[in-house]
C-alpha cells in the first residue's frame, strides 16, 4: 500500500484550503511509502526556501513514521533523539509540519508543509491528513 497521485492531490487540495483560510501561502509535499516525492505545490507567494523544507518534513515523517513535531520534541538536549537532525545528510526535519499518512493502521506516505510558523505549518498539515 502506498499513496497514489490521486491521494496526494486530495491531501494537497485540503491543505491548500486551510492555508488559504489562515492567509499563509505554503509549500505542500506528499511522499509515498518509500519516502519518494509524489506531488508538491508551492502556492503563490510561498517562500522558495521552504520547498526543500516541506519535502524534508514529509520524508522525515515517513522515514521515522512520526510527526516531525513529535520528533522535534524528542530530539532536544537530554532527549532520546538528540542529534537526529544531523543524520541522513541533514535531511531530517525536527519541527512541526510533517505528518505520516496511514491506511488501515499502516503508514503509506506522509505530508510535509512549510512556509509559516510552526503552528501554521502544523494546522495546514493536519488539514491535509484529514483530506486523505
Brief overview, please?
By secondary structure, the protein is an alpha+beta fold. The chain contains four helices and four strands. Strand 1 and strand 2 form a beta hairpin.
Fold and architecture overview:
The protein has a single domain (about 5-130), classed as Beta-Lactamase, CATH 3.30.450.150. Helix content is about 40%, strand content about 20%. The protein has helices at about 5-20, 50-65, 70-75, 120-130; strands at about 25-30, 35-40, 100-105, 105-115. A four-stranded antiparallel beta sheet has the order 2-1-4-3. Helix 1 packs across helix 4 (about 120-130). It comes from Paramicrobacterium chengjingii. It holds the Pfam family HbpS-like. InterPro entries: GlcG_carb_metab_protein, PduO/GlcC-like, PduO/GlcC-like_sf.
Amino acid at each position: 500500500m502506498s499513496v497514489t497521485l490521486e491521494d496526494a492531490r486530495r491531501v494537497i487540495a485540503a491543505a491548500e484550503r486551510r492555508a488559504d483560510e489562515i492567509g499563509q501561502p505554503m509549500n505542500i509535499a506528499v511522499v509515498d511509502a518509500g519516502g519518494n516525492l509524489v506531488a508538491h505545490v508551492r502556492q503563490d507567494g510561498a517562500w522558495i526556501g521552504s520547498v526543500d523544507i516541506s519535502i524534508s518534513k514529509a520524508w522525515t515523517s515517513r522515514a521515522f513514521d512520526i510527526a516531525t513535531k513529535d520528533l522535534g520534541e524528542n530530539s532536544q538536549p537530554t532527549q532520546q533523539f538528540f542529534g537526529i537532525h544531523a543524520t541522513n545528510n541533514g535531511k531530517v526535519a525536527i519541527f512541526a509540519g510533517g505528518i505520516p499518512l496511514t491506511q488501515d493502521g499502516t503508514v503509506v506516505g506522509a505530508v510535509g508543509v512549510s512556509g509559516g510558523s510552526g503552528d501554521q505549518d502544523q494546522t495546514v498539515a493536519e488539514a491535509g491528513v484529514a483530506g486523505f
